[in-house]
Design a protein that fits this description.
mainly alpha, transducer
């Protein structure tokens, strides 16, 4: 049903293609609807791999929390609390966006109704929540009521998809960053403070545990990236256009105050959504580049030559970086976020000059 609704939005876009204002309004929502459908579809199609990833996260954290290690428990507690904060913040933002999307046309209509009533020209036409095609008269009566109900349900459905998918993805990024920090601390504690007596077998076991921990993190970060990368590739392309379209709408003459408020809130939500991905992906990359320093700050000098060779091999393994991508062409980091904003501004400048 969601796919059919998105197709109806593109059909409506074809019919209103000659009206730039209506086309931009349609595009700003239709593209986001497309991303929602892709997120839901890929989550269902690749559900097996998502479950495997979630099971790994759960088992690893339970195993770590079972051990009497205060440092590890403290790191898990910190990134868990941070993940909850991000989740609550993002759900609040999505909820506000959904309600503003639903209520803004009504507020705009009431405002225009009052103005026209004062001028004696009568009420304006009923506004749509979203722009979509239907095979019946949607401008009045039962047709308008049915379409409004469909739009409200689709808004809540799409908001739920976005909030669930994005919060899951960002929390998993927090998990990888936190686990890399735990791995770094474990590497620093490989041989104690240098005065601790560590047998050859015990030292090898500690190195093996760190090595195995990093291998699993690398494996599942690649699984996560394979699930996220195609979706983010589509989203980054669309996000540039959506930000541009929203900016053009915001500065177009004739836009009412209520419409400007809605567009501004919608624009903030787009930028915040993109920033969350780029920022947390950048944090994972930054942490992965610091893990190998834990090996060299350990008391490796207190061990014999055989252990030092194993430490050197471990350091080589830990130099591998964890990077999340958006398709085969770009990485998810702060530089990409800035580049998208610059590109959106360039598109906005081009459309503004064309409008003049």
């Amino acid at each position: 049903m969601a796919i059919m609704f998105v197709l109806s939005q593109y059909v409506e876009l074809y019919f209103i293609r000659n009206d730039l204002a209506l086309a931009l309004k349609n595009l700003s929502v239709t593209m986001l609807s497309t991303v929602c459908v892709v997120k839901a579809g890929t989550f269902i199609i690749w559900q097996k791999y998502w479950k495997d990833l979630f099971n790994y996260v759960s088992k690893l954290e339970k195993h770590q929390l079972y051990k009497p290690d205060c440092l590890t428990k403290n790191i898990i507690r910190k990134y868990t609390e941070y993940s909850r904060f991000v989740t609550y913040f993002y759900w609040t933002l999505v909820t506000a966006t959904v309600f503003s999307l639903i209520l803004a046309p009504l507020a705009s209509y009431l405002s225009s109704f009052q103005n026209k009533e004062l001028n004696g020209s009568g009420a304006s036409s009923y506004p749509e929540i979203m722009s979509s095609w239907v095979p019946f008269d949607k401008t009045q009566g039962w047709g308008y009521m049915i379409l409004t109900l469909i739009h409200v349900l689709i808004c809540f459905y799409g908001g739920g998809i976005v909030a669930n998918y994005d919060s899951n993805a960002v929390v998993l990024m927090c998990f990888f960053a936190g686990q890399l920090e735990i791995l770094k601390i474990n590497c620093e504690r490989l041989f104690g403070n240098g005065e601790e007596t560590v047998s050859y077998r015990e030292a090898i076991d500690r190195i093996r545990i760190c090595h195995h921990h990093h291998i699993l993190l690398m494996r599942y970060s690649k699984v996560f990236n394979s699930l996220l990368s195609p979706v983010m590739f589509l989203y980054i392309i669309i996000c540039s256009l959506m930000i541009c379209a929203s900016a053009v709408q915001l500065t177009t003459e004739g836009t009412t105050s209520m419409q400007q408020i809605w567009i501004a809130e919608y624009l903030i939500a787009l930028v915040a959504q993109l920033f969350l991905y780029c920022w947390h992906s950048h944090k994972v990359l930054h942490m992965s580049l610091q893990v190998d320093s834990g090996v060299y700050t350990s008391a490796w000098w207190s061990q014999d030559v055989r252990i030092r060779r194993s430490v050197l091999l471990l350091g080589g393994q830990l130099k591998k970086k964890v990077m999340f991508t958006a398709g085969p062409f770009t990485d998810l980091n702060i530089a990409t976020f800035v580049a998208i904003l610059k590109g959106s501004y360039s598109y906005y400048t081009l459309l503004s000059k064309r409008g003049e």
